[in-house]
Every structure is written in C-alpha cells, then in structure tokens.
Amino acid sequence: MIKTKFFPYPVKIILISIALVSCAKISTVSTNFDQKNFSHYFSPSQVKIIEQESEFTTPYKMIGGVEGESCQAKVHSDVPNKIDARTMARRKAFELGANAIIFSGCTTINTRRCHSNIVCYGKAYQVENQNE
Fold this sequence. Notes:
Helix content is about 30%, strand content about 30%. The chain has a four-stranded mixed sheet with strand order 1-3-4-2. The relative contact order is 0.20. The chain has helices spanning about 10-25, 35-40, 80-95, and strands at about 50, 60-70, 100-110, 115-125. It is elongated.
C-alpha cells in the first residue's frame, strides 16, 4: 500500500490546476470578420442613389423593385428612420446585382410586429460603367 498523505509541492500545483480547469466554463469567441459579412456590411455603399433615369449617361436596365424598412419593435426601442430603411433597400438592390437605385418614396406603415414602421420603395438598376 502506498502512503499518499502528503504530495510533493509540484504535484499539488498540478492537481489544483486540473481541478480548477475542469470546473471552468470554456467559451468561444465569434466575430463577423469573414468575407461574406464584410462585403454584406459595405454592400449599400456599392449602390448609388439616383434621383431620376435621365441622370444615367450609360446603358442601363431596371432589375426590379426593392423595399427596405426600419421597424420600432417596442415603444422603448429606437424610433424608425428613413436612413435605415433606405440602407436596407440599397442592400437588397446590391443582392439583386444592382449598382444604382431610384427611390420612389417612403411611408409609415402600421403592422402588428412593429410599434412604428417606415418603409422605403425603390427601383434597382444595373448601370454599365458607372464610375461616379
């Protein structure tokens, strides 16, 4: 039979360390630093806001209609605004392959899921050689 009444100091340190580590919660850190999130975040800046079709100086085609919304989910949440709604519409236009958008307007809409809601509507365009 081995007498284990006293462990040498280094063994005690190792045993205590193992005990502490085994009780600790291991958590992971996740970030949005990947190519998909990076391009998604900056996608609205790739879609230029145009006032009317007569401003196009190169060939273009309309891809489709888009809309974006800004929703105030609860009374104490941030108030909805046109900037967020238009940014969402520009992001959707980018996802369709557009590089320009003409907004037709924004309006307040009452919905069940939002205390207050602003929706902006626009037409997404693909313009050739748009450098500006």
